[in-house]
Amino acid sequence: MTVNDRVMPVLDAVLAGRDAPAALDTWCREDVTVQLSGLAIQLRASSSTAARYTRSLFTPGSSLWNAHDDAISSTMTMRTIALPTNRVTALAERVRLRARGVSRDVKMHAQAPARWHRTAAGPVLVTDTGAAIAPQVVARHADGYTVITVDDTDAAMNAARHLREIGYRRAENDGWVCLHASAATIDGRGILFVGNSGAGKSSLALAVAAADDGAFLSNDRTMIAISPDAAPRAVAMPGPIRLNGGTLSALGLSHASRWNLARPKPASGSDWQSFQGSNKLHILPEEWRERTGTPLLSSAAVELIVFPQVIHGNHKIDSCLTPLGRARRLLAAQCMSPGDDIYVCDWLSIRHGNTDKQGVNSADVLDALARRPSMDLRFGTDTPYRTVTAAIKDRLDALPRT
């Protein structure tokens, strides 16, 4: 009898409420503890991939999230079991058959519809059969979660993503707001790059971070909080740096396609080698530091905001100061807050407070950011990054230190 054969009846008993989640500890031999805004959750995983990825995802640590290998006191446990797809699908179907009463539809992200079912064991989520992610089952217990996921490299990272979701919602409860933005620093001074996908946020943040006295903070998702008489504070949302081949070549890193990374590279026949390719290489910040020597920071005060626009096939560059009203509109378009199109579902029900309060807090954060110095920056895919970063540094040097 294989390991998968032996664990299946135990999983079925846990999901049916006949056994406690601790019965799975025999198969969960990889441990890491993550602190999320004061809440410590121990991840116990059957897969070393899940534990390794979680450690890397939450590096460097910050005041919002941090990973520990040392034993620290935890208040919750997340157990994660990786199985072949057909076994996860079979467990999901058994949950559907056992469901009692009204179920609740949610979205784990835009292309991942799922449903919470009421069962004797408590609420259990299963992904829809048409979801754009591998099937998984998530059971919620009084003292944590059981995550049953597919044993391929990508899906084994789901537990880390769920931990990040918990941390994000706890931070949101504490007044933090998430922006679709990247961030870097020069000499410790924070620069926020805000714009739509393809605007050049990631490439600019990495180019600035590679400059003298530069450091990388975040890619694509940045948490912002405000306090009286201080500049807005930026903290990285844990996640990979997503880059296409054109950007890597412009950064002088065309050899990055040969890097051995936690997440598999896009298929050779995909469009990831182009500047506007939808498929991208996923590189964790810690992997980026190891391979490029770029310093990493966990937080910084926002001293300058850049609204980039990259023009394909162009080599020119121009910039101008951004009027306050325009800055406010551009920031609001990239803010994850109630009423915005990119506000994602709180599928784990971590958030507390009403949406009116969330909306007021988001507006206050946006107002504070809009009052920071900002610039519109247009540059071409043929513009040397040293020229673009020099323009940003010149603008930053002209500002008084916060």
From TrEMBL:
InterPro entries assigned? P-loop_NTPase
Q: Which domain of life is it from?
A: Bacteria
The record's SUPFAM superfamilies line, in alphabetical order, gives:
PEP carboxykinase-like
Q: Which Gene3D superfamilies match?
A: P-loop containing nucleotide triphosphate hydrolases
This protein is called what? HprK-related kinase B
